[in-house]
């Protein structure tokens, strides 16, 4: 059985490995891997920046954005032929209060594990096994695009948290700004449009597929910060650009919410007016919060969102499909890439 593997901590030690068939002890559901999406996390693991192989192994199977098809399920909960997506994160072995409640995305002690990232093999294999409660069923209409479900779950969680925070004040948001038109940003914009909100998307490029994808959602694309409306009710930040993060804190309307999903690089020093930021956050009842990962509730919400989205628009998010035998090409990012998929 073929699988895309890396040696964590060793830069560019990535290969197509021949692995044994998955053991029954790994789960009652045997899944045929169909595809994995490639993101910045995968490229950073390949670069040796982080990643952790399972105990007793020296290599890690890549792939946390997976889509598969059930081959057999001895539990009887799923049927052969079902399209499924596996959850990335597993709760810690002696669960904290959040993991014990099924909110493993809010783990308090950091002892969780993650498929394709931390101490668990990923979904970049021709076959793998999971327990049925570690899978979510995907509509058959999403066979070509269901690989987008994991990144969609990330923004489904973000919107879940935004709406919980927003419930503290009367009224509902009207205007949303999404920063970054990569897969996360575009999917965040999709979920905002599905909520009948006025959506603006800020990115740097002026050509390629991104402006058209935004326009075809019914949103407004901006290639310069100066063209964005002065006050927005909600910001979903998907770039991790440190200066932009601080600038956004001062651009919201009263009771504004800034959700940070992008991860900033450490070591860059900025000069910011901390006092002014504090003053506006307090006097305008603003909230800035971070959001990462997702739990079952968010995967299910993501599956529902994708099932009701325009299939042609979703298909355009996947700008390249690469066969497993040409895995090296999928790891080379091109300027026109939005989402690149490795077909298993």
Describe this structure in words.
The protein has 344 residues and is an alpha/beta fold. The chain folds into two domains: 2-138 and 314-343, Alpha-Beta Complex (Quinone Oxidoreductase, Chain A, domain 1), CATH 3.90.180.10; 153-290, NAD(P)-binding Rossmann-like Domain (Rossmann fold, 3-Layer(aba) Sandwich). Helix content is 26%, strand content 27%. The protein has ten helices and 19 strands. The strands form four sheets. Strands 3, 5, 6, 10, 11, 18 and 19 form a seven-stranded mixed beta sheet that branches. Strands 14-13-12-15-16-17 form a six-stranded parallel beta sheet. Strand 13, helix 5 (210-217) and strand 14 form a beta-alpha-beta unit. Helix 3 packs across helix 8 (296-308) and helix 4 (183-193) packs parallel to helix 5. It is globular. The N and C termini lie close together (11 Å). The model has no long low-confidence stretch (mean pLDDT 94).
